[in-house]
Design goal:
nine-stranded mixed β-sheet, homodimer, 277 residues, D-amino Acid Aminotransferase, Chain A, domain 1, D-amino Acid Aminotransferase, Chain A, domain 2, alpha+beta, six-stranded antiparallel β-sheet, 2 domains, 27% helix, 16 strands
Amino acid sequence: MTDTLINGEIKNTISVLDRGLQYGDGLFETMAVCNGKISLWDAHWERLTYGCKQLSMPLPDKETIEKEIDLICDKNKDQIKYIIKLIVTRGEAERGYRFSNEQNITRILTSHSWPDYPKEYQTEGVAVRYCETTLSENKRLAGIKHLNRLEQILARNEWDSDEFQEGLMLTISGDVVDGTMSNIFAVKDNIIFTPSLTLCGVAGVMRKTIINLSKDLGISIFEKTFTKSELEQADELFLTNSLFGIWSVRKIAKTRFTKVGEVTKKLQEELVKIRCK
Amino acid sequence: MTDTLINGEIKNTISVLDRGLQYGDGLFETMAVCNGKISLWDAHWERLTYGCKQLSMPLPDKETIEKEIDLICDKNKDQIKYIIKLIVTRGEAERGYRFSNEQNITRILTSHSWPDYPKEYQTEGVAVRYCETTLSENKRLAGIKHLNRLEQILARNEWDSDEFQEGLMLTISGDVVDGTMSNIFAVKDNIIFTPSLTLCGVAGVMRKTIINLSKDLGISIFEKTFTKSELEQADELFLTNSLFGIWSVRKIAKTRFTKVGEVTKKLQEELVKIRCK
């Protein structure tokens, strides 16, 4: 399935002069649709808003995008779960990095089938490796979901087998930051820790949801810098993303975790309640 | 003027599912056309080849691209000077960072008018500022001209006035790397120095041409790391890029250079001889 709306029009091509293609000059959100509604829409919109601010890009009109999303949802009424991806670029322009004050933003909405992840990734956990491709640091781009994704691409393509379900990315100095498509959390003595993302990494919408959820449940949660060995000494590890929610980690490099931890399980149970209501 | 050929077809739109748009997953070359011929084509092709290797992307067929360039040149016979830009992306694909072994590369060729730079930029020099946007370091991406250009975009848009013609970008640790659209060279005691680009920056085709030209002329030239103050203590400074060739620097931040230096002048004269033959 792919429905595509570009600036509200049903079409599936854009101009080669769009800055999204020319320079990766834009942002995106990959969103779960459950029962005809975007899951965690407010959090996605909030991240997009912050991204536009960081890139000095005008924020598109929220109501317009909501109407366009409704159009796609109407068309897919028979689907229980699928994905809507929103791309916002700085629009079509003349050659050159400079942009004018009058930016004609391009809005692209596409729908995609729900990914077919085995249920065991949640209930039994996934195996994770460390990637050699490092994440570079730039505080202006840290946290936002921009279209410059070569580092994640190179990292994700370091392995091809099904032995690992995710790869963790580190800075040059060896701090663990996030997965190629997820954020990581560690539990130690019933306290949750997750890497701080002030210099690099993507601040996932599910990451934020889990931070808020933990606080609501009275579980202490902190952002900090992480080494590999600190991660491997945790009692529980789990990954989050907007689509799969929470995956427990059963193996990281050579360290094994024998079962899904209690804190992870609790969060998985509570997440179900707030996710698709 | 914009002629566009996509995979050899005359059209000017690409699929929204192209990885060039989705993730900036590709490379580009911006090339000067003089008298119906691409200037420094071999050097452009060599950089593209290296870029494809670094991104694990198949190299497109050289002859095919040369034929497509010829088509555009034939159509623009009446133009003495213009630009052809080549973009190569990893092609259309399903959502996700992972790529398959069978990548259907997208080739995009566009023609653009020659930029209208005043002659004085060469003969009298330009004013240069330092940018606040830093360049992040990743040895896998260093040197190549990939489509992830948000850092250059943010840097170029730090100033809007005509007071400065270029901005220099530094690493977090304060090393000068390159300009937003050019490379920088410093002359001290008749020896030329240019920042080494092993961790970041774009290895310009003109940069390489100047390095080779200097060697041919018997002038010593070295790559090294640079601080701002080392740069400001140089006898001569100049910028290079494929389109404008060599611009002398007459002012950097608060440091002024009274006239175009002898080494710069010599290189400008020699470059003319090899550039558009």
